């Protein structure tokens, strides 16, 4: 049995009596969790960035993503990792994606997305060594020699 809360001087309800605070993860982490594709909201900028990345990925190109804090970089990367990691021509493309973006996504060759969260490394780490190490770690369980 719990004690009733002490009455407030004004007699009105407390905030806790009328509002429920639910824990929400407001930061998207590159943790391999699925469902990022359906969470991605395609604004004009996101659609343009997504198209550019899909074009680069289709030809084996690379990209470097730059944006302000909170602009959605990690969310875009998590969605792309999920999309690329599906590795089949029948990739599940969310509704609402334009036909050009959907076509580009379905045209991607099979791939392996490797997350490289730089916050886990010291500032003096050599980027090439970090990336190669993460790739080797990702290829090992697949039985692919990382030479």
What does it look like?
- With 147 residues, the chain is an all-alpha fold.
- Helices cover 39% and strands 0% of the residues.
- α3 packs parallel to α5.
- The longest helix is centred in the middle third of the chain and has 15 residues.
- The radius of gyration is 22 Å and the shape is elongated.
- The model has no long low-confidence stretch (mean pLDDT 80).
* Biggest sheet layout: none
Structural class: mainly alpha
Unreliably modeled segments: none
Describe the oligomeric state of these chains in a short phrase. Answer: single chain
- Separation of the first and last Cα atoms: 65 Å
Classify the beta-strand content into a percent band.
under 5%
Q: Bin the helical content.
A: 25-40%
Can you tell me the overall shape? elongated
Instruction: Tell me the series of helices and strands, N- to C-terminal.
Output: HHHHHH
Number of strands: 0
Counted by DSSP, the helix tally is: 6
Main attributes?
6 helices, 147 residues, mainly alpha
What's the structural blueprint in terms of helices and strands?
Layout (H helix, E strand, L loop, with lengths): L14 H4 L17 H4 L4 H15 L14 H14 L12 H8 L20 H13 L8
Helix pairs in contact: 3-5
Brief overview, please?
The chain is 39% helix and 0% strand. By secondary structure, it is mainly alpha-helical.
